[in-house]
Amino acid sequence: MPLDHRRVPGPEESQSPLLFVAGGAEEEASEARRDPSALQPLFARVSLLSQAKGSAFVELSGGTKVLCAVYGPREAGGGGEARGRLVCEFRRAPFASRGARRKPSERDPALAQALQEALSAAVRLGRYPRAQLEVSALLLEDGGSVLAAALSAAGLALADAGVELFDLVSACALCRRGGEWLLQPTEEETRRACAQLTVALLPSLNQVAGLLGSGEGGPPESWAQALRLGLDGCQRLYPLLRESLLRAAKGKEEEQAMEPPSKMEHEENPANH
Fold first, then answer.
1. Cβ–Cβ under 8 Å, residues 143 and 60
2. pLDDT above 90 covers what percent of the chain?
């Protein structure tokens, strides 16, 4: 058969393409070394949005990025109630997940409902009669443990807005692979999981604010083990969230101290005459 000189001949020796597929032997080895009770490193920053009453950004090392904003309290429509009302929404940016792009700011009613139920246990709604508080969460990137990150960010945003709380909200996610529960799973670990659980805690009160589970987690003892692991993770996460709030408050105090006195204060101060 004559040679086809228009084609570039392939190498005499080659490697299987499976060696270069993401999630191969290297990833499996790293997962085998993973500590099931390890928390993902977390970055939190408060007071990012000037248009909102309060705001917070939370990023997990797995890639999850959530931005939360709080508006109000505002007068509730329809006359309102003796107890304040909390309204939550959860939206996903079009570029948040892998694969095909979603619609612009696509809403997720299920996660919004989970946010509202957990945050309602933390907010002192009796202090806001006939008023409405609004919490908006935007998922910028989905790297796993999305609801847990949104709950922590929403708690920080509410505190930043000066809303009266019983306690901060600290939340952790878990997933079950095989017979083992993993704390703060990544998106890849969540996709392969047979069961998932999200725990929201009011750490100072040691009170569970929210609990959402799905899938086949095995016998009741397995779910109890996951709950204990999640509660321990929430307690360990709490100092990090509290520190981000204290850091933001200190920054605001320094900014106010550097601001020059207003004209009215200057005229009223007798030392200036």
1. yes
2. 57
Going by pLDDT thresholds of 50, 70 and 90, the confidence category of residue 80 is: low
Which of residues 181 and 263 earns the better pLDDT score?
181
How confident is the model over 162-193, as pLDDT tens digits? 999 999 999 999 999 878 899 999 999 998 88
Return left, alpha or beta for 99; rule: phi > 0 is left, psi -120 to 50 is alpha, else beta: left
β-bridge partners, 210: 200
CA distance 262 to 11: 77
**Under the phi-then-psi rule, with left for phi > 0, alpha for psi from -120 to 50, and beta for the rest, what region is 68?**
beta
Q: Report the distance separating Cα 194 and Cα 34, nearest Å.
A: 18
List all residues 6 or more positions away from 94 whose beta carbon is below 8 Å from its beta carbon. Answer: 101, 102, 103, 104, 105, 106
Q: Mention every residue, 6+ apart, whose C-beta is less than 8 A from residue 225.
A: 181
Whether 150 contacts 170, CB under 8 Å:
no
